[in-house]
Amino acid sequence: MLEFGDTKINTLQVEEARSRFELEKVQLFEHIAPTYRRIKSLIHMKQEWAAAREKVDSCRRGKDSKSELMEIIENAVSKLCFSDGLEKSGKDYAVEITSIYRMLINKQGVKYTMLKHVILEQLLIAISTSNEEMVIRASLTVLTTIVSAKISVIDDIKKKGLRLSDLARALKCNVHEAATLIYLIKPSAAEIKTLELLPTLMDVICTLNSSRCRLSKSLTVTPPAASLMIIEVLVTAFDNATNNMHLAAISSPRVLSRFLDVARNHSLEEHISLATILVKCMQFDGHCRKYIS
């Protein structure tokens, strides 16, 4: 009985000790819980701060990159305006200005719009006032490439005072790139006739493989192809006497053979223009058949 009683006493002591331990656990938890929550909160706040800092740094880096890009653009445009950039830097600078304008095409905002306007205005000034063939050629190449990328730019350059007479002058000075821009502008038949371009257009076509045309081969419409399509207008758009006068100028074996070279491996539009010209030539002079065949 005593042993049993001792066992019973020991069991009661264990239970009492366990109860005290559980109570102490609860009290301990209640004591450390606020501290734990504060620590957890601080950790969370630190994580949030780090994330926010990273976001700010990212924005700052983006802003710095954007500012740096804008600085490059502004420097290039300033060079175009005040330092005769096209004259001093040549082809590489022309490529730089072309790339900048292409990048700006779809940008919105006053500053971007202003930069686009300045680029167009300076190119037009160079075309109309420069006496340097290289400057005129580079300006026309840039302007033509810009128009090829976004045809609506034509309206902008017309509003800024682009004159067909300036393009005709450049073309007659062997800046063949002007033929492409004249074609893209789509002047009326009467305007084309007034410019008296036929001999020059024939020269552009007949020098198809010369070094003067190499700079423009990357254009969507090359100067020889543009010349061909302008000539189509000159031999079809007027009265018979005027059309025949133009046909007489082009109906020689040398010129017709070059016409065939221009349209080879080019667009459907060029082939249609060529076919129209050849039919007109054969109607005008039956001997043209043997040149063409």
From TrEMBL:
InterPro entries listed in its UniProt record: ARM_LIN_2nd (IPR056514)
Occurrences of domain Putative E3 ubiquitin-protein ligase LIN ARM repeats (ranges): 68-232
UniProt superkingdom: Eukaryota
PANTHER family noted in UniProt: OS04G0584500 PROTEIN, TRANSDUCIN_WD40 REPEAT-LIKE SUPERFAMILY PROTEIN
Stated name of the protein: Transducin/WD40 repeat-like superfamily protein, putative isoform 1
Organism: Hibiscus syriacus
